[in-house]
Amino acid sequence: MRRKFLLARSACLFAPLFAVILSCSSVFAQSEWQEKVANLINDNRFSDATAELVSLRNLTPEEQIQKDWYIELMRRIRIEFRYNEAQIKEQLAKAGFDTSDEKMREWESKRYLEMRPIDGERRYFKNAVSNLPRLDPELRPNRVVTEYDKQATAARLNNCAEMIAQSDGKGSLTHKRRNTFECVATIPANTIPEGETVKYWAPFPRQSCARQQDVKFVSCNADRYEISPETDLQRTVYMEKTAVKDQPVIFKLVFETTSYAQYFAQDYLVANVKPYDKNSETYKVYTAEYLPHMIKTDAMKKWAEEIVGNETNPVKKVSLLFDAIDERYPWASSNEYGTMPCIPEYVIREGHGDCGMLTLLLVSACRCVGVPAKWQSGWTMKDSGVCGMHDWGEVYYEGIGWVPIDMSYGKMKSDDPLIRDIYKSALDQYRLVINDSIGRPLFIPKTFFRSEPVDLQAGEIETKDGNLYFNKWDFEISVKVD
């Protein structure tokens, strides 16, 4: 069931994003013009918003930053919604879908075909067509499942069964892997003028949980580098290189980790969780709001409380929330997070979300019902060496500690209830943990807006002239198992 979800305060405006986008701790108050521009952008009246911004004079430095961000925000939204109606019809036809105006309007009204009417013109999300069969229940059963997908699903189910069989159900570590990762960021030749310094904040692993140990920096090819402290919740290696004419700027970083699988049986957790010490630092920090994407609005509280009902056991509360999100909100690729003012609201309003978005909805819901929860993200890996970006979370149970949870993996398709519910309280060994929070200041601060103000998986690049957005450079990460 889809619900209209309206926040009870102004978190729907873009102003609260500034702090995380700039990697600083200050949040600026909104003036009359800022609220007006935010509303125009929310209404997709980009030309009017731009005219309003151009007319502004005598701004303070903080207001100038906000003005620049609004301009950048509209630019990024246009990158996300890059196709016009004729182009999207061509893509629909190629995929074998109905291209009639009537059907397209129906899909748009149900939010199956993601569209924004920017300045009165229908503009479509870059992945609108590939998302369509994921979102439309009528098309979903007919989705083509490749042989590769079938094999990957079978391998995951087998691994889940092995995790359960080899574990004591109390969080013991299994499936030890020693991993060597190579991260490569590439900026095409002559993108940066010769002789200019390029700054890169590369992702670097956390050593914050038992599932990831023995983190070791091996090498990088930078002229200068600094590794951020272990205490950083979004950890990086800061690097600098000088651009050379007719040559791409290539940053390479190599590091090692030891990863493990970890499984907690639901019955064990239910029987052993203790009442929370509500005066503890862990409880207070991880049940609090962390705006703009970990929210405890009246609407969010009501939504979560309706799901958990009269349940008092924290483990069962989380299980109910997990089941509800898994049932109601399918996975689909999403807009860049920096274009979203409040991610949990987006998921409930649009009826879908990617891994990080579903995780932020779960974390917000857990906090609303008094269960400490946090974000975690980084990369998943395959035995083939291929890696992919992924986000998940952890839930804190008194007397047990932090327990992993993967909301977007959801319930496994299995007749075995232990396998079906495994990702409510387990993670496999195929994880690289980079982040234990969202929107944190970077070690060695950026001068310009971050490309990704929420997560940090590919890193950030800038020069003296500005930030280099994701469409200007490439990133890949691969792994070898020792």
What does the secondary structure layout of this molecule look like, with pairings?
Blueprint: H1 18-21, H2 32-42, H3 46-54, H4 61-80, H5 85-94, H6 101-109, E1 115-118, E2 121-124, H7 128-135, H8 147-166, E3 170-187, E4 197-203, E5 212-220, E6 224-227, E7 236-242, E8 249-264, H9 266-272, H10 281-286, H11 298-308, H12 314-328, H13 343-350, H14 355-368, E9 373-381, E10 387-397, E11 401-405, H15 417-420, E12 426-427, E13 431-435, E14 460-463, E15 466-467, E16 474-481
Antiparallel strand pairs: 1-2, 3-8, 3-16, 4-7, 4-14, 5-8, 6-7, 8-12, 9-10, 9-13, 10-11, 14-15
Helix pairs in contact: 2-3, 2-4, 11-14, 12-14, 13-14
Structure description:
The chain has 482 residues and is α+β, with helices and mostly antiparallel strands. The protein has a domain at 167-482: Roll (C8orf32 fold). The protein has helices at 18-21, 32-42, 46-54, 61-80, 85-94, 101-109, 128-135, 147-166, 266-272, 281-286, 298-308, 314-328, 343-350, 355-368, 417-420, and strands at 115-118, 121-124, 170-187, 197-203, 212-220, 224-227, 236-242, 249-264, 373-381, 387-397, 401-405, 426-427, 431-435, 460-463, 466-467, 474-481. Strands 3, 5, 8, 12 and 16 form a five-stranded antiparallel β-sheet that branches. The radius of gyration is 23 Å and the shape is globular. The termini are far apart.
